[in-house]
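As promised in the previous annual report, we have extended the structural survey to additional targets. Below is the entry for CsbD family protein.
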Amino acid sequence: MNEDTLKGKWKQLEGKIKEQWGKLTDDDFKVAEGNSEYLAGKVQERYGVARDEAERQVKDFRDRIDRNY
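The corresponding structure token record, generated without further manual editing, is:
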């Protein structure tokens, strides 16, 4: 899933993202609006993981979504 597709489906995916990363706030989602780099930064911040781990989690999430859509 490329960045444009993620942005286009953001509202549809928001619930699944909230299931994956429940510590993210509604404000985080509003600002992210499909920006996977911002999302990875928030995952890093809220969950206390390294940047590369947060990026891996977001990539894995995007890959899972790709398989289901």
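The longest helix spans residues 51-68. The radius of gyration is 11 Å. These points will be discussed at the next consortium meeting with the crystallography subgroup.
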